[in-house]
Amino acid sequence: MNDKITISLLELFELFPDQESARVYLESRLWPHGVKCPTCKSGDRITTRKGGYYRCNACQFDFTVRTGTIFGRSHVPLHKWLYAMYLLVTARKGISSLQLSKEISITQKSAWFLLHRLREACGNDLTKLQGIVEIDETYVGGLAKNMHKDKRKQLDGLGTGGKGKAIVMGLRERNGRVVAGLIPDTSSQTLHAQVHKHVEPGTAVFTDAHRGYCGLNSHFAHEAVDHAKCYGKGGLHTNGIESVWAVFKRGLLGVYHHASKPHLNRYVNEFAFRLNDGNVKRQTIDRLDSLTVATAGRRITYRELTA
After folding, report:
1. Residue 145 above 80 pLDDT?
2. Using an 8 Å Cβ cutoff, are 71 and 52 in contact?
3. Which of 89, 155, 260, 262 is deepest in the core (most CB within 10 A)?
């Protein structure tokens, strides 16, 4: 569509001025080899109908490009979805639902729901990390001293530094992909399970001196840097994953202000996706393509979000 790395908003509007142009784009990305039924996965006996509808004569199912994706049963026009997707992959620190509601003329409630659906699509890559992988955790949440006394009582005995906070663990290939998500605790069992889940055996992994990482050298080339003594030594450091936390927390505090624990993992997915497939070195359309492809088979209802 465009050979430039960055596409401006004006150029995006020219590419997708209405719902029909957006529908054609989505179909070309979600059905690259032709229309396919989302139910029986057949593409042989498809009849085209008006308004972007199709009928699968094999299973007698009527569907559109929205069916079976995060766009399903949404009344928001598709070109507004694409505009929101553009903002999600290009805004370094994200965009708030209030700002998005003003940008695309929908309610704040609809914008909030739309953004969470997009975040649901962001956590869809299970490729294992290789090369040199840096690993670290961070804590997200308010300080115990700022909480109501009844909530502080519930935190008694949980320790000090992370008291009352959510724990996010991140793994980053040196100059490469990021995987991150919430973990229940920083025990050896939990940390080891996450490393085995996301990192290829035999990979070089760099961590801090947290004792929960002890024993990783039985399956990985594990080295640790003691931050009480230094930030790093030569190539041994975790600066890459720590820079991820810097961007994540600036966005969380500066744009979203607060993320409740039930939704926090989706915010983490959003930032990880933006650092991976939304990398600014990639063409804007390529970034948009990656998010579009990730929407297939991913759907969350408003009831599930607010349960």
Report:
1. no
2. no
3. 89
